[in-house]
Amino acid sequence: MVQTEHSIVSQVYAAKTDPETADMFIQQYMGFIRSETVKFIRTAPEDGHEDELSIAMLAFYEAILAYEKGRGAFLPYAARSIKNRLIDHYRAEKRHKNVISLHTASNPEEDSGELVETIPDTADHIEAYEVRTASQKEIQEFSEALSRFGLTFSDVADNCPRQERTFAACRRVLDFARSRPELLKRVEDTGKLPMNELASGSGTDKKTLERHRKYLVAILLAFTNGYEIIRGHLCQIGPAKGGSAK
Predict the structure, then answer these.
(1) What are the phi and psi torsion angles at 47 (to 5°)?
(2) Nearest C-alpha neighbor of 217 from the set 238, 236, 192
(3) SS3 call for 105
(4) How far apart are CA 200 and CA 203, in angstroms?
(5) What region does 18 belong to: left with phi over 0, alpha with psi -120 to 50, or beta?
(6) Which of 89, 163, 189, 192 has an alpha carbon within 20 to 30 A of 149's alpha carbon?
(7) Does the pLDDT of residue 129 top 70, yes or no?
(8) Going along the chain, which residue ranges are E strands?
(9) CB atoms within 10 A of CB 98
(10) What is the mean pLDDT of the chain?
(11) Among residues 166, 169, 163, 156, which one has the least CA distance to residue 227?
């Protein structure tokens, strides 16, 4: 049965807060995810491109978490997320210019096949599943922590600093807060951000902190309770080059 956009959006919003629903939704749209992967790599994901399919699945899940109705239809939004993730992956791969290709002949003097064929399959699919499950659990817990401040992941993404100067100021606030574990604990326990203390302790203008309060809440919470996966994502967030002040 062909689904309407309204029913898809309903599923997306249900999947945001329920990992089991998210898993079912991802499985339901594996054909779409695979198709978008094929469009990008121009070959079947099974032909040595399993990593790209995994990255596309992660991007689809991230699109579920970040999607809001005002961003248009969900599937085109998810397609853009998959494409952007794969582009980032290939850019990262290009940095390893001196790494020997696994598709190079293992012995050029003989018809010996490719190097990749000599490497045993050490993929631990159970471990990969456990990591994905742990990621979903951590994302859910962090989402609930943000909700105590009346925030969502989209709020945080929209409130990220756009200038290098402002981003550096937010990092100073984080550095100060991390040097005061009791302050981070107070934020977690009370659900309040001590703006005056953060401003004076970090030497940052209070107005700057107020403009980026949502982003600051997220990065401070990420360092309160072992959110290793979340911290990894937030620490990669930086100002866009040429971004306007915000």
Answers:
(1) -85, 60
(2) 192
(3) strand
(4) 5
(5) beta
(6) 163
(7) no
(8) none
(9) 5
(10) 75
(11) 156
Return the structure tokens found at 182: 């009791």
Taken as a whole, the chain contains a residue count of: 246
- Picking from 54, 22, 59, 65, the residue whose alpha carbon sits closest to that of residue 127 is 54
Q: Residue for token digits 């399959």?
A: 121
Which pLDDT score is estimated for 146?
82
Q: What is the Cα Rg of the chain in Å?
A: 21
pLDDT at res. 48: 57
Contacts of 14 (CB under 8 A, 6+ apart): 21, 25
Please give the structure tokens belonging to residue 31: 């054909």
Residue 163 sits at φ, ψ, to 5 deg, of -115, 145
Residue 111 has pLDDT above 60, yes or no: no
Question: End-to-end distance of the chain based on CA atoms, in angstroms?
Answer: 45
- Categorise residue 226: left if φ over 0, alpha if ψ from -120 to 50, beta otherwise: left
Alpha-carbon distance 60 to 85, whole Å? 10
